[in-house]
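We emphasize that the prediction below concerns an isolated chain of 94 residues; any contacts that depend on oligomerization or on bound cofactors are therefore not represented. The input was used exactly as deposited, without trimming of termini.
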Amino acid sequence: MALKMTNRELDGVSVVALEGRIVLGEESNALRERVKGLLADSKKKIVLNMDNVTYIDSAGLGTLVAAHHSARSQGASLRLSNLGSKFQEVLQVT
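Result of the prediction step, given as a token string:
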């Protein structure tokens, strides 16, 4: 299942709703490009809504970490919302 992404602006925050799997290949690349595009458009507050993410592999985890570092290096903030408990645990370890 391809990763579906829906953008919206809410009070100066770019919210990207994600649905599907964040895995090696097209999905990770698409997410990386979406965040890169938002940063290029000078978006300084980005939230990834993880409510409908069903699976994240190590490449997907790497993509999230890299997106966070990219945002931070450009003076922006990237946050995750609606993170399920299984993903919270993995991210805390990371």
